[in-house]
Structure formats: structure tokens, C-alpha cells
Automatic annotation (TrEMBL):
This is Uncharacterized protein. The chain crosses the membrane at residues 12-33, 69-94, 106-128, 148-171, 183-204, 210-234. Keywords: Membrane, Transmembrane, Transmembrane helix. The keyword Transmembrane helix applies.
Length: 236
């Protein structure tokens, strides 16, 4: 187990390090633009009555200006790039072999990718909005936020892990027909996981947020992710 883990330290460390570096560069860019007076803010959105109602996405849109929109898109781009890079690197570092289960390594690096992605998004986003805005948006879920965030992290981690297992198993170390296997696997399983992801987002983005509904969707997504991961991870 430790030997397999050490095998991925260097390549994944490079990927995660670059992600953090890009996030820090983006944050420094925001600071520089702000100091130069070239970064605008939506000051009306900093007042509580202005964004006290509506879904989380509505509140974000109300708080965005041109500069903060670009910053928000950059943060999301970093997180998406990390997820894609993690899946591709995993398929290279841990190629499929008959009788070998890749699920443990997929879970480890999927969780690591999710953690680094959350950190990168946090580095950028906290520089784009005022403390009032961040508090209002983060408290949208009320007392249930503490239960939703860990589940959200687990969903992201297992989703990345499922993609890692799916690509590694479908490639089968370059065996003939890998294109068809990859397409079938990701289209078929992607439809199921896409429905779960859309439902989870809708539940979290509702106004007001219903904790049982949000937790139910996230738990269902978690089960679906683990199911897809198990489907591919231990395939003979």
C-alpha cells in the first residue's frame, strides 16, 4: 500500500503544487489590480438587505462585477483543471492490471485532489468578496452548513475517484478498443452521476435550503459515486 502510494507522490505533488501556485498567482493579481484601482466591486451587494433573499447562485450573481466574475471563473477553472489532471495522471501512474484493485489509490488521490481544489478556490474567492458577502453566502444553508460541507467534500472526492477508476480500467493499458470502452463507460455512468450532481446542486441552491433534501441528494450522489467506482475498480 505504501509503495503504491509513494509511486504517485511525485506526479500528483506536481499537479497539486501547480494548482496552488496558479491560485496564489491569481490572488496576487487580484491584490495588484485592486491596489491599482482597476478592480471593481459591487458595493450595493455588500449590504445585508440587498442579498438577504434568493438562492445561493442568485446571491453570487448579485455580488459579481466584471472583475469578480473573471476571478470566480478562474477559480472554477483551476478546480476543474485539477480534477481532469488527477484523472489523467492516475490512469498513467496506476494502469489497469487483471486482479488488481485500484480503488484504494483512487480514493486517496481523489480526496487529495478535492482538498487541494477547495483550498485553491478558497484562496481566490476570499479575495473577491467582502467579509459581509462571504458570511451571507456561507450561512445560506443555516445550521445545516456544517453537515452539507463534509458531504459535499466526500461527493467531490468519490466522483474524482470514480473517474480515475473508470479511465484506468477502460484504457486497460492501451489494449485495442480502448476508445470505445472509454466512451461507453463515461457516457453511461456519466448520465447517472450527472443526474445526481444536478439534483444535489438544485437542493443546495434552493431558497430556503432544506437540510433533509440536500443531505438526501448528497448521500445519494455519494452512494452512486462509490457504486461506479466499485464497478470499475475491481473488474477482472
Amino acid at each position: 500500500m505504501l509503495a503504491k502510494l509513494r509511486k504517485g507522490v511525485a506526479p500528483f505533488g506536481l499537479v497539486f503544487g501547480l494548482g496552488l501556485l496558479f491560485a496564489l498567482i491569481t490572488r496576487l493579481g487580484v491584490v495588484g489590480l485592486d491596489a491599482a484601482g482597476a478592480f471593481s466591486y459591487n458595493y450595493r451587494a455588500a449590504t445585508a438587505p440587498y442579498i438577504s433573499t434568493g438562492s445561493t447562485l442568485d446571491q453570487l450573481c448579485m455580488a459579481l462585477s466584471g472583475g469578480t466574475l473573471i476571478g470566480f471563473m478562474t477559480a472554477c477553472g483551476i478546480a476543474l483543471s485539477l480534477a481532469v489532471a488527477t484523472v489523467l495522471v492516475f490512469a498513467h501512474v496506476y494502469p489497469w492490471k487483471s486482479g488488481r484493485c485500484v480503488a484504494p489509490m483512487a480514493l486517496v488521490w481523489g480526496a487529495a485532489c478535492a482538498l487541494v481544489s477547495f483550498v485553491c478556490v478558497g484562496i481566490v474567492i476570499t479575495g473577491l468578496f467582502s467579509g459581509v458577502q462571504l458570511h451571507q453566502i456561507s450561512s445560506k444553508g443555516g445550521s445545516g452548513t456544517g453537515a452539507i460541507l463534509p458531504l459535499l467534500f466526500l461527493c467531490v472526492a468519490t466522483l474524482i475517484a470514480a473517474a480515475c477508476c473508470g479511465l484506468s480500467t477502460s484504457l486497460r493499458d492501451g489494449e485495442a478498443g480502448w476508445v470505445r470502452r472509454v466512451l461507453v463507460a463515461f457516457v453511461g455512468c456519466g448520465l447517472v452521476l450527472g443526474v445526481c450532481t444536478a439534483g444535489s446542486f438544485a437542493a443546495i441552491n434552493s431558497s430556503p435550503v432544506s437540510l433533509p433534501v440536500a443531505v438526501g441528494w448528497l448521500a445519494g450522489s455519494l452512494v452512486a459515486n462509490v457504486g461506479v467506482m466499485a464497478l470499475f475498480a475491481c473488474r477482472k
